[in-house]
Amino acid sequence: MNHPENSILIIFGASGDLTKRKLIPALYSLEVQNLLPNNFFVFGASRTELSDTEFRDNMADALNEFSKDEDLSKKDQFLKRLYYQSVQANDSSSYKPLINRLEKLENEKEMKSNLIFYLSTPPSLYDVIPDDLAKVKLNDESNGWKRLIIEKPFGYDYESAKKLNEKLSKNWNENQIYRIDHYLGKETVQNLLVTRFSNGIFEPLWNRNFVHHVEITSAEDIGVEKRGGYYDNSGALRDMVQNHLLQMVGLIAMEPPSSMDSNSIRNEIVKVFQSLSKFKDDDIAKNVIRGQYLESKIKGKKVKGYREEEGVDPNSKTETFAALKFYIENWRWGGVPFYIRTGKRLPTRVTEAVIHFKPTPHSLFSQENECDSCNQLIIRIQPDEGILLKFGMKLPGAGFNVKNVNMDFHYADLSVQRIPTAYERLLLDAMNGDSTLFARVDAVMNAWSFLNPVLEAWKNDHTIPVYGYPAGTWGPESADDLIEEKNMTWRYPCKNLAEDGIYCEL
Ligand code: BG6
């Protein structure tokens, strides 16, 4: 693994939740693994006035609460890397103290001015801060590289994403911009590439001749929690489908890249996005189902409906569940339906992709459970990461009775090492200048262009229903009707990779 060059990370929005919950714990994990360069520093930057000491104290608390590392012995050493400087967005003169302190630190440590700016702010500042930075020449690479990490959501729809890109590209080159999609940082999402391209056995089957359909589920059991205000202006399609789920579709459906370099991989993902079938106004209601969770009882405990959540409009039509059926119109996948769904307040937290293989051309044996695609490869992204293959076996005894059995691999058995969090991997990659696991501009735009007709139809066509579903269930029943064929439904995954079924113990 490359060791990153000395650099300084400036986190805008440092008093927010992401810094505490994800960024600082991820950086600390890199410290524990000795992956940070000697001269690596972090500047928290927000409107709030804080001293370095106060910021360090806050981050020490954050580590106690959110760090996954049991080893806290390097905490003091780590905290010494942290500084804080208050900055006002949209006021480039307020950057002067930050610039002075950065220069002072760089001189003291005799390091180049390699700077990473992390925008963990409300999205309305995604074009403002990069513009401010350019005004004070903090995008100038003459004495060290300058990189910009931008959190999702990258735009609100096709037009706003286009405008944002246009603004950014005035002062920043595409190779300086790192658009975070934290799903790409997940080990098991990357393992999709390894499963497909390090094994000869899957490739011959990985196409329309053998695959019946592909199913991707990303379920959460939590509701919108304290993010009602943000979520009500976003919804499941923007929050999960446009980015995380489509990136997974890209990795499952892409052609083998010519090499593992960033552009080769990202070129193949973009080709998949360009081949996504276009939704037409009159088939949207049939192929895209939206739902909203309703008040219910889960394990005897009353749970609020979405419209009762804090920050949510009591008449809101924002979807907390979305399920889609679509096709990828290319030689590999022509005619193979892709079904994807995501939702909040579903029965469990699980993300998995299921490749359903076609049945045998003629059925010779009696199956214990009737199914038309009994051979399934289930790739579990989280939790209980692993891979499961389902196939038929003869039941011992007279006759030829077939039972569907599971061949089960758990990622945790592979190594004693803890699975690194997505942010550890992505922050390290950004320090190393490796953008493979970040979304490129054309991927983002193609993803929006695929979903834009749906967003438009939902906004303008009031006959398209928002189905209610009781919190703690698998979403609206109409989502089941997306999979129209006989004997076929979604997989209803349990916490345990090998179990499925609507009634499994959760
Ligand atoms: C975020 C969404 O991008 O992903 C959240 O904004 C969602 O709404 C989260 O809860 C899910 O991430 P993970 O890693 O818990 O699957």
Largest sheet: 10 strands, mixed
Low-confidence stretches: none
Strand order of the largest sheet: 14-17-16-15-13-7-12-11-8-18
Total individual domains: 2
How would you state the average pLDDT, rounded? 92
Structural class: alpha/beta
Bound molecules: 6-O-phosphono-beta-D-glucopyranose
Annotated CATH architecture of the largest domain:
2-Layer Sandwich
CATH class of the largest domain: Alpha Beta
Name the helicity range. 25-40%
CATH fold category name of the largest domain: Dihydrodipicolinate Reductase, domain 2
Number of helices, counting only DSSP H or I runs of 4 residues or more: 14
What would the keywords be for this entry?
506 residues, alpha/beta, Rossmann fold, Dihydrodipicolinate Reductase, domain 2, 2 domains, ten-stranded mixed sheet, six-stranded parallel sheet, binds 6-O-phosphono-beta-D-glucopyranose
Q: Could you characterize the architecture of this molecule?
A:
With 506 residues, the protein is of the alpha/beta class. 31% of the residues lie in helices and 21% in strands. A ten-stranded mixed sheet has the order 14-17-16-15-13-7-12-11-8-18. The longest helix is centred in the C-terminal third of the chain and has 20 residues. Bound molecules: 6-O-phosphono-beta-D-glucopyranose. 6-O-phosphono-beta-D-glucopyranose binds next to loops.
